[in-house]
């Protein structure tokens, strides 16, 4: 008998690892997964931020815990994955969200800054996916991987934003997700990407301040920026059995910006 919609979206008994999960989009997605019944492991670099985030989740009745790690460092990624598996027993849902940005004209962009962005935004995703798959998902013949890209990965930004490394890394995340989804489908592992537009966050604060929130919102057909609910639905779709036949795809959550910019 076919399951109900509520049963398809239910994550009771599942475990999720969310990198970059102590604030912003990562914490929003952790709320979505936990509200649907999953146990949640959060990670970011700063223990104090993680303690606050886990307290917030636990206050909402979510089974949450944390591990501090730098997802630009291979040894930290492997330690995070191993400790998560030791403490939770398995990982059913992996959300790769940790990310960095850097603004500079392309002709003057520091190579070290390019490497910093690439190491966290795409190299770290690859290492985490590879390690979790080999340690857990391939053997259990199931898994949901959600990679956070950006509408910046769908095409060029306005020239004043000057984020060549960030845009390139997020374009790579999209194709990485498509290629990995094709390769790991035989293990019943789905791999999909989410492409957020502008959401108020620490990462976007300087851009929003320089351009203005109202001016930025005016570029979206819905005339608004993202809020603290707008990623919950797509996260839950990709993470649950409601999305079990979706892999290698990307979805823009941007108020329609990409449909008018040609992304």
Describe the model.
The chain is an alpha/beta fold and 263 residues long. The protein has a single domain, classed as Rossmann fold. Helices cover 46% and strands 14% of the residues. The protein has ten helices and seven strands. It has helices spanning 5-9, 24-35, 47-59, 74-88, 111-140, 164-184, 205-211, 213-217, 232-239, 257-261, and strands at 15-19, 39-44, 64-68, 93-96, 143-148, 189-196, 250-253. The protein has a seven-stranded parallel beta sheet, sandwiched between helices. Strand 2 (39-44), helix 3 (47-59) and strand 3 (64-68) form a beta-alpha-beta unit. 44% of the residues are buried. The mean pLDDT is 95.
In short:
This protein is α/β, with parallel strands linked by helices and 263 residues long. It is built from 10 helices and 7 strands.
Strand-helix topology:
Elements: H1 5-9, E1 15-19, H2 24-35, E2 39-44, H3 47-59, E3 64-68, H4 74-88, E4 93-96, H5 111-140, E5 143-148, H6 164-184, E6 189-196, H7 205-211, H8 213-217, H9 232-239, E7 250-253, H10 257-261
Parallel strand pairs: 1-2, 1-4, 2-3, 4-5, 5-6, 6-7
Helix pairs in contact: 2-9, 4-5, 5-6
What do we call the CATH homologous superfamily? NAD(P)-binding Rossmann-like Domain
Order of strands, widest sheet: 3-2-1-4-5-6-7
Helix count, per DSSP? 10
CATH fold-type name = Rossmann fold
Order of helices and strands: HEHEHEHEHEHEHHHEH
Number of strands: 7
Q: Into which percent range does the helicity of residues fall?
A: 40-55%
Catalogue the unreliable spans: none
Number of domains: 1
Beta fraction: 5-15%
CA-atom Rg in angstroms? 18 Å
- CATH structural class: Alpha Beta
User: What average pLDDT do the residues reach?
Assistant: 95
* Second CATH tier, the architecture: 3-Layer(aba) Sandwich
Class inferred from helices and paired strands: alpha/beta
């Amino acid at each position: 008998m076919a399951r109900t919609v509520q049963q398809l979206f239910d994550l009771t008994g599942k475990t999720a690892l969310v990198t970059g999960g102590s604030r912003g989009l990562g914490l929003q997605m952790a709320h979505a997964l936990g509200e649907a019944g999953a146990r949640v492991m959060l990670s970011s670099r700063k223990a104090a931020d993680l303690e606050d985030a886990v307290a917030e989740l636990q206050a909402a009745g979510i089974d949450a815990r944390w591990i501090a790690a730098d997802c630009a460092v291979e040894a930290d990624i492997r330690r995070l994955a191993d400790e998560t598996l030791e403490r939770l027993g398995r990982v059913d849902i992996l959300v790769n969200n940790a990310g960095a940005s850097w603004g500079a004209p392309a002709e003057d962009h520091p190579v070290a800054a390019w490497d910093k962005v690439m190491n966290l935004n795409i190299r770290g995703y690859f290492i985490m996916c590879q390690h979790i798959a080999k340690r857990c998902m391939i053997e259990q013949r199931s898994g949901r991987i959600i990679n956070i890209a950006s509408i910046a990965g769908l095409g060029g930004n306005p020239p004043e934003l000057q984020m060549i490394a960030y845009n390139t890394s997020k374009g790579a995340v999209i194709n990485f997700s498509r290629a990995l989804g094709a390769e790991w489908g035989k293990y019943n592992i789905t791999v999909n990407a989410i492409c957020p537009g502008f959401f108020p966050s620490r990462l976007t604060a300087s851009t929003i301040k320089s351009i203005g929130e109202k001016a930025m919102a005016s570029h979206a057909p819905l005339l608004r920026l993202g809020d603290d609910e707008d990623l919950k639905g797509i996260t839950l779709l990709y993470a649950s059995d409601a999305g079990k036949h979706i892999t290698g795809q990307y979805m823009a959550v941007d108020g329609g910006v990409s449909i008018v910019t040609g992304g």
